[in-house]
């Protein structure tokens, strides 16, 4: 007999994710809320009954990609006589809800980042063709409360959302408008999710938030303490059995407090990697961006972090061509990059986002100047990234195995510095790669390129074989 709680028929959902890790996490959560409705994930829109575009609004290019994808989906929907539900989620939905409906009538649902828990209800309503097609109100706490408490983990690494939104109002950025005010989850809820992930085999957790080090979640109920900081949260999550690695992203220099910096040195689970966006090396531009710190204050934070954890890899984000950026301002950015020496960094041309203060500033920089600066910056960043990766050649590093490598018999994993690592398993190896997923093994690095390391497994093999028997 069939279980009446089982969904009656399998339907396919295809979720296409654009933009940041926050969106990657949200897409996972959408999959979780849709599962009880009988929606199983599929690999393409062609196999799907429901397509969700989880969108990004941060740069104009990302927004335009969404409209072009929607044009394609409309054709698929027409070819199927209307049998396809199209939903637009994420920050474009938040910022341009009604506009999406107007520009692309094939869209059935639009929901902002705070409404994912309502997705099942909205789909039910859309299939009855009644009610709202638009759900973009801010209700962040309600969102955290309504999502399923246990998540299905997918592999040994997972994101865990600890805070949402941002109150910093950098003058170029849409996040405070699309994601709303900064809000942190209670520590007990986060710890419960961490335990559930660990029980499903997760070994590495990345604590996630738009402004993650602004975290100030309610302290565990038993402590009777005031809100906890990210440093306190990290120390707490480090005690969860099975969690061997902790990371966090993305942080703001203004919230890099001494306890968090100290945690990089004294919490063994804390991975030696810090993504600390600086955006520019010029004090004039940092001021116009409303970043709230100078280039030298940023240098000082990096110095302290390196003092706490000398081998730490530093990552960042940069914007070139912010309004008013002169050649000298850009040179100050290049100098900061030379001084810090990054392991990896993301760089973008400034893109004016309607409604943000910088969009109306004088001194918008011509496109060709932005192009030239971006090329120059990226050239330097690529050199630094390659040099950082090559500095690991000859070292034996602990690698968390995440799956199969490019070639048969090859495994793929992650170094403490967030580098992708490919390595061969010995021919006579008794365990298959799926058995090895989630293990941390020693790999001697033989070669390195811009994007990955390659190496060979050392020691431990016999021990692992024993464990398998
Ligand atoms: N133009 C260009 N880059 C931007 N970013 C955010 N807003 C803009 C914009 N308007 C970049 C910043 C941020 C990253 C996520 O995206 O570098 O850190
Ligand atoms: Fe945007 Fe600035 Fe907030 Fe980061 S800190 S999300 S760049 S407003």
Automatic annotation (TrEMBL):
<dbReference type="InterPro" id="IPR002792">
    <property type="entry name" value="TRAM_dom"/>
</dbReference>
<feature type="domain" description="MTTase N-terminal">
    <location>
        <begin position="11"/>
        <end position="128"/>
    </location>
</feature>
<dbReference type="GO" id="GO:0051539">
    <property type="term" value="F:4 iron, 4 sulfur cluster binding"/>
</dbReference>
<dbReference type="InterPro" id="IPR005839">
    <property type="entry name" value="Methylthiotransferase"/>
</dbReference>
<keyword id="KW-0949">S-adenosyl-L-methionine</keyword>
<dbReference type="InterPro" id="IPR058240">
    <property type="entry name" value="rSAM_sf"/>
</dbReference>
<dbReference type="Pfam" id="PF01938">
    <property type="entry name" value="TRAM"/>
</dbReference>
<protein>
    <recommendedName>
        <fullName>tRNA-2-methylthio-N(6)-dimethylallyladenosine synthase</fullName>
        <ecNumber>2.8.4.3</ecNumber>
    </recommendedName>
</protein>
<dbReference type="GO" id="GO:0035597">
    <property type="term" value="F:tRNA-2-methylthio-N(6)-dimethylallyladenosine(37) synthase activity"/>
</dbReference>
<keyword id="KW-0819">tRNA processing</keyword>
<keyword id="KW-0479">Metal-binding</keyword>
<feature type="binding site">
    <location>
        <position position="56"/>
    </location>
    <ligand>
        <name>[4Fe-4S] cluster 1</name>
    </ligand>
</feature>
<feature type="domain" description="TRAM">
    <location>
        <begin position="390"/>
        <end position="459"/>
    </location>
</feature>
<dbReference type="InterPro" id="IPR006463">
    <property type="entry name" value="MiaB_methiolase"/>
</dbReference>
<feature type="binding site">
    <location>
        <position position="170"/>
    </location>
    <ligand>
        <name>[4Fe-4S] cluster 2</name>
    </ligand>
</feature>
<feature type="domain" description="Radical SAM core">
    <location>
        <begin position="152"/>
        <end position="387"/>
    </location>
</feature>
<keyword id="KW-0004">4Fe-4S</keyword>
<keyword id="KW-0808">Transferase</keyword>
<dbReference type="InterPro" id="IPR007197">
    <property type="entry name" value="rSAM"/>
</dbReference>
<feature type="binding site">
    <location>
        <position position="166"/>
    </location>
    <ligand>
        <name>[4Fe-4S] cluster 2</name>
    </ligand>
</feature>
<dbReference type="InterPro" id="IPR038135">
    <property type="entry name" value="Methylthiotransferase_N_sf"/>
</dbReference>
<comment type="function">
    <text>Catalyzes the methylthiolation of N6-(dimethylallyl)adenosine (i(6)A), leading to the formation of 2-methylthio-N6-(dimethylallyl)adenosine (ms(2)i(6)A) at position 37 in tRNAs that read codons beginning with uridine.</text>
</comment>
<feature type="binding site">
    <location>
        <position position="91"/>
    </location>
    <ligand>
        <name>[4Fe-4S] cluster 1</name>
    </ligand>
</feature>
<dbReference type="Pfam" id="PF00919">
    <property type="entry name" value="UPF0004"/>
</dbReference>
<dbReference type="GO" id="GO:0046872">
    <property type="term" value="F:metal ion binding"/>
</dbReference>
<dbReference type="InterPro" id="IPR006638">
    <property type="entry name" value="Elp3/MiaA/NifB-like_rSAM"/>
</dbReference>
<keyword id="KW-0963">Cytoplasm</keyword>
<comment type="similarity">
    <text>Belongs to the methylthiotransferase family. MiaB subfamily.</text>
</comment>
<dbReference type="Pfam" id="PF04055">
    <property type="entry name" value="Radical_SAM"/>
</dbReference>
<dbReference type="InterPro" id="IPR013848">
    <property type="entry name" value="Methylthiotransferase_N"/>
</dbReference>
<keyword id="KW-0411">Iron-sulfur</keyword>
<keyword id="KW-0408">Iron</keyword>
<comment type="subunit">
    <text>Monomer.</text>
</comment>
<dbReference type="GO" id="GO:0005829">
    <property type="term" value="C:cytosol"/>
</dbReference>
<dbReference type="InterPro" id="IPR023404">
    <property type="entry name" value="rSAM_horseshoe"/>
</dbReference>
<dbReference type="InterPro" id="IPR020612">
    <property type="entry name" value="Methylthiotransferase_CS"/>
</dbReference>
<feature type="binding site">
    <location>
        <position position="20"/>
    </location>
    <ligand>
        <name>[4Fe-4S] cluster 1</name>
    </ligand>
</feature>
<feature type="binding site">
    <location>
        <position position="173"/>
    </location>
    <ligand>
        <name>[4Fe-4S] cluster 2</name>
    </ligand>
</feature>
């Amino acid at each position: 007999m069939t279980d009446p709680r089982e969904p009656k028929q399998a339907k396919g959902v295809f979720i296409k994710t654009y933009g940041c890790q926050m969106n990657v996490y949200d897409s996972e959560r959408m999959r979780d809320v849709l599962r009880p409705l009988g929606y199983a994930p599929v690999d393409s829109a062609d196999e799907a009954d429901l397509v969700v575009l989880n969108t990004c609004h941060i740069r104009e290019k990302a927004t335009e990609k969404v409209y072009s994808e929607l044009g394609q989906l409309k054709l698929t929907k027409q070819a199927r006589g209307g049998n396809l539900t199209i939903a637009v989620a994420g920050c474009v939905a938040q910022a341009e809800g009604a506009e999406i409906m107007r520009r692309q009538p094939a869209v059935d649902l639009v929901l902002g980042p705070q409404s994912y828990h309502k997705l099942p209800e909205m789909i039910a309503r859309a299939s009855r063709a009644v009610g709202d097609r638009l759900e973009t109100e801010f209700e962040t706490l309600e969102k955290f409360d309504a999502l399923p408490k246990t998540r299905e983990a997918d592999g040994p690494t997972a994101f865990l959302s600890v805070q949402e939104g941002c109150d910093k109002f950098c003058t170029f950025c849409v996040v405070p408008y699309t994601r709303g005010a900064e809000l942190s989850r209670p520590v007990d809820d986060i710890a419960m999710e961490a335990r559930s992930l660990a029980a499903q085999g997760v070994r590495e957790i990345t604590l996630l938030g738009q402004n993650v080090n602004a975290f100030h979640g309610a302290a565990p109920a038993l402590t009777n303490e005031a809100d906890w900081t990210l440093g306190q949260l990290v120390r707490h999550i480090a005690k969860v059995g099975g969690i061997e690695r902790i990371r966090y992203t993305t942080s703001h220099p203004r919230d890099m407090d001494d306890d968090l910096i100290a945690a990089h040195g004294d919490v063994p689970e804390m991975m030696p990697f810090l993504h600390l966006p600086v955006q520019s090396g010029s004090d004039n531009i940092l001021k116009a961006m409303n970043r709230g710190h100078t280039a030298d204050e940023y240098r000082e934070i990096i110095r302290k972090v390196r003092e706490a954890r000398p081998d730490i890899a530093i990552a960042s984000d940069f914007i070139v061509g912010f309004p008013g950026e002169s050649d000298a301002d850009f040179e100050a950015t290049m100098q900061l990059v030379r001084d810090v020496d990054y392991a990896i960094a993301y760089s973008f041309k400034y893109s004016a986002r309607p409604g943000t203060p910088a969009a109306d500033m004088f001194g918008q920089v011509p496109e060709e100047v932005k192009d030239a600066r971006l090329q120059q910056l990226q050239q330097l960043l690529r050199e630094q990234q390659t040099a950082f990766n090559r500095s690991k050649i000859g070292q034996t590093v602990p690698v968390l195995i995440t799956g199969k490598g490019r070639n048969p018999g090859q495994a793929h994993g992650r170094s403490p510095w967030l580098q992708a690592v490919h390595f061969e398993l010995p021919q006579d190896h008794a365990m298959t790669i799926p058995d090895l997923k989630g293990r941390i093994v020693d790999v001697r690095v033989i070669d390195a390129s811009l994007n990955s390391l390659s190496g060979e497994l050392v020691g431990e093999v016999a021990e692992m074989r024993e464990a398998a028997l």
